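Sequence in, structure out. Go.
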Amino acid sequence: MSTARATLDPRTVDPFPAYDQEIERLQSFLHGLDESGWSAPSLCAAWSVKDVAAHLASIEVYNEACLEGKLRVLHFSGNPDDWNEQGVAERRRMKYEEVLAEWERRQRRIRDKWGRIGLDSTIQTSAGPYPLRLQVWHHAMEYATHADDIEVPVPANEREARLGWRTAQRASASLWTRSRRVWA
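Output:
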């Protein structure tokens, strides 16, 4: 096991460098696609690359609702699969440029708000109060997973560190889920 994987603790480490790197990687990749690249199948069953980007935009709609205290306004049944399908379906008629612009606009706004409220804050989520630091790690993981789903290249010199924080985040999220308490 690498030293990075052995010592990284998502409860205390700043998630923004990993999160920001995943965002930059996705943006660069998506901006480089032509229409056929956007319509290419992803590794997500029945979703194209555009559908994955639509899902990313709907994630940010959820994040906005969490930060603005508007979770009840969302048409969220509590089933994440239904929410995901709804978000993708709502954007299917949009042009890929519009989907990308929406995701980037919403994502920038969320990143700015997260930076202002601070990583030691607790935010409201559909699962209840949750440490922002762990929420950012969760979304870094979400973005890394979907980057893999659309086959965004990861430079060889970044792969070990990326695997390290993903492994640590998964272990931390599992502990949080079991304990349902705020980390001290």
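Check: The mean pLDDT is 88. Residues 19 and 140 are 4 Å apart (CA to CA).
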